[in-house]
Amino acid sequence: MDAREADRLIAAAVPPGPGTWADLGAGDGTFTRALAVRLGPGARIYAVDRDARALKALKRDLASLDADIRTVEADLSHTFALPGVTPATLDGLLLANTLHFLPVTAAALAWLASWLRPGGTAVIIEYDQRSKSRWVPYPVPADDLPSLFADAALTAPQIVARMDSAFGGEMYVAVGRRR
Prior knowledge:
By secondary structure, the protein is of the alpha/beta class. The chain has helices spanning 3-10, 30-39, 52-61, 105-113, 145-151; strands spanning 20-24, 44-49, 68-73, 90-96, 116-128, 158-164, 170-177. Helix 4 (105-113) packs across helix 5.
């Protein structure tokens, strides 16, 4: 998937305009770039990943993006800090193909969602109809979202997009807001 495809996928989930967002599990930045396009000038995006090499690849491209993008090396399965950010202040967070790597999905989502301000947007992109595998060790079926979102103090999830996955099943985009 490239940044244009990622932008089309998140278009219905991410409101345009500046804000402070975190791309959690950013990898080399496909969705970080899409967020930068969606949010436009004045946006600040924290690209968080545990893979230093992937973040280094993203850093090489930062000059071409019209947003303030800050990379943070952190493992999402442990608590971490976003430099200059306090909990309950982010406008949005994006977890694209990330939750399925976290063994305690409900607790992880609740902790990550605590970074959102009231009314802040949580966007989850995951595989549906996908069996457990090495690449998706902890599947997050769309049917599990209502309880996951409720436990994370998010409004009921709305699935705003779906697309076939090249890896089997389909991907969905779910949105909730911090209560």
